[in-house]
Amino acid sequence: EKGTYPHYMLKEVDEQPAVMRKIIMEYQNEDGDIKLDSSIREAISESDRLYIIACGTSYHAGLVGKQMLEKIAEVPTEVHIASEFSYNMPLLSKNPLFIFISQSGETADSRSVLVHIKKLGHRSLTLTNVGGSTLSREADHTLLLHAGPEIAVASTKAYTAQIAVLSLLAVDTAKAKGITLGFDPIQELSLAAQAMEVLVDQKDIMENIARDYLAVTRNCFFIGRGVDYYVCLEAALKLKEISYIQAEGFAGGELKHGTIALIEEGTPVIAIATQAHVNGSIRSNLKEVASRGAHTCIISMDGLNDASDQIVLPEVHEYLTPLVSVVPMQLLAYYAALHRGCDVDKPRNLAKSVTVE
Ligand code: M6R
């Protein structure tokens, strides 16, 4: 039930801090440590490479997951779009473990990969929001997202739940390997939940930007580097899907290799800059587009205001920044769709769960 909310999407965006807390509760043991099923730990430790398979928003969460699994747990990880995997199959390692990420657990493209890799005798783990779904039943292991039902076609709380669960998977794997973390993962996840809460309470900032710059625009670009780039891909998908604005997310360094030709007077360019080591470069990208007439917006934690618009994110751990930087993106897409008179919860031509290949 959406209660007093005008749309499920807005309700689901608002639920994200609570979902983070639920995930902490579900995956914490009595000692306050993370507890994952020991069979999952074993499956990961027996594998020499992880292959994440997903579509759409879940694929974007997988990209963030790869970074955490490689950087926190030092496990080589590849991420593949399910529909591409079957006919573009990479050379597999000796002992692969396949990780399927799917909110619904019913996505046909992902299922067809699962069927295929099972025939090859490989092991699998599904991260899904729906216990008992096809991908959960047919995989060897399941990790639940605990996000509660997601009704809006545009995925929001499932994306952040996927990233949170992937972070716990990375942390649990690191621990099993004897890697010292240097941070308290549960504490950091609770801080991220608090940060999300701050952002969902600042809807007017996102609504104003959406009304002023996205309500009539033909296109919109999102730029970022490193993990921010992955969130840009998700931001662009969200905006396209519900507001029908032609949107593209790309790596800041790629601007000069083509996309900058599209910048005209007033083109909105939104940058995410949460990673200290690349923030300088992304800021110079913003200057480049601003000098060609773009309307710029920066989403960052350092509070330096060098764009036309600014959204300040509360500080969170560097691995968890996607959990917070995506929230303003979801809200920008929501308000853009609203101001353009679109059907936010049921965008044209789309189904919540894509059960055909
Ligand atoms: O249920 P799944 O996570 O497998 O769905 C995958 C995509 O169809 C889904 O994320 C889609 O891209 C969303 N509508 C995006 O908001």
UniProtKB/TrEMBL annotation:
Catalytic activity, EC: 2.6.1.16
What positions does the domain SIS occupy? 40-179, 209-347
Q: What residues of the intact protein does this structure contain?
A: 244 to 600 of 600
Q: Can you quote a single GO CC term? A: cytosol
Keyword Transferase in the entry? The reply is: yes
Q: What does this protein do?
A: Catalyzes the first step in hexosamine metabolism, converting fructose-6P into glucosamine-6P using glutamine as a nitrogen source.
What are the recorded Gene Ontology BP terms? carbohydrate metabolic process; fructose 6-phosphate metabolic process; protein N-linked glycosylation; UDP-N-acetylglucosamine metabolic process
Q: Which UniProt keywords apply?
A: Aminotransferase, Cytoplasm, Glutamine amidotransferase, Repeat, Transferase
Per UniProt, subcellular location reads as: Cytoplasm
Top EC category: transferase
UniProt-annotated catalytic positions: 352 (for fru-6p isomerization activity)
Q: Which molecular function term from Gene Ontology is one that the record holds?
A: glutamine-fructose-6-phosphate transaminase (isomerizing) activity
Q: Which domain of life is it from?
A: Bacteria
Keyword Transport part of the UniProt annotation: no
Look up and give the organism this protein is from.
Scopulibacillus darangshiensis
User: Under what name is this protein listed?
Assistant: Glutamine--fructose-6-phosphate aminotransferase [isomerizing]
Quaternary structure and partners: Homodimer.
**Major subcellular site:** cytoplasm
Q: Which reactions is this enzyme annotated as catalysing?
A: D-fructose 6-phosphate + L-glutamine = D-glucosamine 6-phosphate + L-glutamate
